[in-house]
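[step 3/7] fold_predict: job queued, chain A
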Amino acid sequence: TESILEPLSLPESPGGVAAVESSPYVPCIFCKECYILAEQNQLLKHMIIEHKLVIADVKLVADFRRYILYWKKRFAEQPITDFCSVIRTNSEAPLEEQENYFLLCDVLPEDRLLREQLQQKRLREIIEQQQRERYDTSFHSMCMFCDQEFTGNRSVLLNHMAREHAFNIGLPDNIVNCYEFLAVLQEKLDNLQCLYCEKVFRDKNTLKDHMRKKQHRRINAKNKEYDKFYIINYLEFGKSWEEVQSEDDRELLDNPEEDWSDWEEHPVCAVCLFCEQQADTTEKLYLHMQVRLVLNTSSFITLELKSLNFYQQVKLVNFIRREIHHCRCYNCQEKFQSKGGLINHMEETKHITFLPARSTWDQPQYYFPTYENDTLLCTLSDSEDLITEDQSEDVPVVSEDISNLKALKQSSVLNKLLC
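[step 4/7] structure written:
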């Protein structure tokens, strides 16, 4: 078989990346007609009328030009019916009056993958651009309201306009293509247009008074022209900030009291003490150990654990885990080369059903999990009705003497964790 030594990439377009970036035109998928990218709707209308092609959810396509070029190439290779659903109109009319339209949408896995790849590519480009602007120290621009000049970083100008002129377009780190954004806003002011209500006034002073008195020193959030300047509009596939915000608001309204009734827990997936088998409940796990080891292991472990308080249960499980991990019989301390050999020994000698004296495993070092993701520990529970001799007495807690740290390091029980 041949090896792949370098990452593979899908072709960008029939004409290559350079052709895509340099051309301001978008061709029809089927013919030689071309339209300016800004006239996207005209191209879509042309393809519907002349070629009976409907593209679903065009607004979700991150790069319209690349999308069209991709499908122009694919339709040249295979029939359109290999990709599109056929919609028949006037189905009850005579055959000659019926028309077939072709629907291209992301139900087709290839189309869905293309849309997601274009979205991811655009997101990478936008984030790279935003990072360049974030750390750029060569920024230079004038304030739109007081003609004060600013150099260095864009945040200096944006913070000045927010603080001194109550004109806040958002945090600098949330904005991308800042130069273009400021140019669009400046052009509107030069055309004597209010940035918020977008009315046009007769002179500059009237516009200033209007924006100040009406508190219109802000942009119109409903104007889609501004969406491309905010990073949030690129983060979720096919969603603008308004859609993301409305979904969040709906969640708050639907759950005013934080109803958790529909919350679903993940399976427990506890692991057997003696092999790699997993189960989603402790009952299934005990049953597995009983059947797998041909012993009454279930009863043994269940009875042993039920006779202990929670912390003793934790120490016992961690003790067994530690011994099995080291391929050492926890009864006679004999070591083996493999876990399989160990289990065979414990089955034959019945050592699996007998634990050593409690003083052997009821040690502080076994408070610490042998495996950090040991879900079995989370399923343990204390018996509220159980009162043992150990529990009936107050257990004193004596701190270790830390006056001599060197001696402490040598004598501390934590050293046993290294064994």
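[step 5/7] annotate
Confidence is low (pLDDT under 50) at residues 1-20, 294-299, 384-396.
Residues 136-243 form one domain.
exit 0
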